[in-house]
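Example 3.2
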Amino acid sequence: MNGISAAHVIVEPGGTGVVAHVGLHALGCFADRLGLGDALSARIPLSGERLPVHDRGKVLVHTALMLAGGGESCADIEHLRLQADLFGSVPSDSTVFRTLHQLDATTRAGIAQAMAEMRTTVWSRSARTTGKDPVILDIDASLVEIHTDGKEQAAATYKGGFGFHPMFCFADATGEVLAGVLRPGNAGANTVADHLVVLDHAIAQLPPPIAAGHRVGEGAELVQRPVVVRADSAGCTEGFLAACRARNVTFFVTARSNPQVSAAIGDAVGVASVWEPALTQAGEPRHGASVCDLTSLITDHKLPVGTRLIVRREPLHPGAQRSLFPSLEFRYWGFYTDAQGSAVELDATMRAHAHVERHIQRLKDSGLCRMPFSDFEANANWMMTVAMSADLVRWFQLLCLDGDWVDARPKALRWGIFHAPGRLVHRSRQRVVRIIQGWPGTDALLNAYTRIALLT
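Structure, written as tokens:
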């Protein structure tokens, strides 16, 4: 037997001719091809008497690359500074710190406009976002735990922890962060104003033909493509549903338990004919689960006209979440919607809201959990940059990668693509990077560079 896990080598300093993070270089080239750095620079006003050494748009892009590579603090930018052959002049950690403390809410709004322009370009090229199908938005909040009381507006959370309670809106088709609002840890889960802020900011991020008819004050005759928003029970409020109707946005929100809903379910429990077999996301029968439309059994004047109540039941299992109706045999779960279609189809659509957990986890794997500053506005800028980095990675996956890499998680991308090592060769006054032979992401990287060169 041989228990040796590392080959014997002699380790010395002074290595040259090698580079790391080749995949992050590809991501940076992709950002440059889109014109992201210039678009951001145009929205960031200059301060001081002299021009900064590092363009502020470039600082944000470099910070986004650092976050994509797994960085969790300003100091991690130093890993890119050591690779000047790939990334050029990279700002120091103090420059990143200073930049994220200089931006304010007005500048963040300008940066959001720049991201919307980039998004329009990307969506026009991706098969996932073209066509006439409804654009589905998912709203959800998540807790970010902080282990110090030295951060402004960090507070006790409803789960007994301490930190922040940001709210996000994602595009279901791509997983992009269309909007995000950093909130104190004690912010309410069902705050109507916060839901409307992220909804309106998300609609503003949509390409103009899609957003038409869904902005505040616009009529239904302007709608060119349907927009659907899904939310959990925190969105089940009179104000939010009325606002969705006013914006010509179809809603799906988880129903809360109340006597009227419980009575409706009780009336339907023993009537087998009203229950239809539920389907999985793939269209296959969902074992033991069934769905029914109980709209005719409820009357709630607080709900918009045309609102339907759809209820699903499935056999109880260990760890099942709280049910709308007390039962020893089934777990009951329901939602309100004003969408057309069969109860079975609508149930499958609403259950896909669970995708939002995967989108949030992607952010938490890419810097969201840190909140490194004591200043609240600086942490809001950090969260904005985390979202920007996540969207840049998703665009890169959609337009430049194939196969399993298109939906790969951050960890897989880092191990297979972003941190690919290579050998640096100088030839004919050019720098050539040769990816190490046998690296799992070599073919994907080479194809990505080819596609980046073809972008116009």
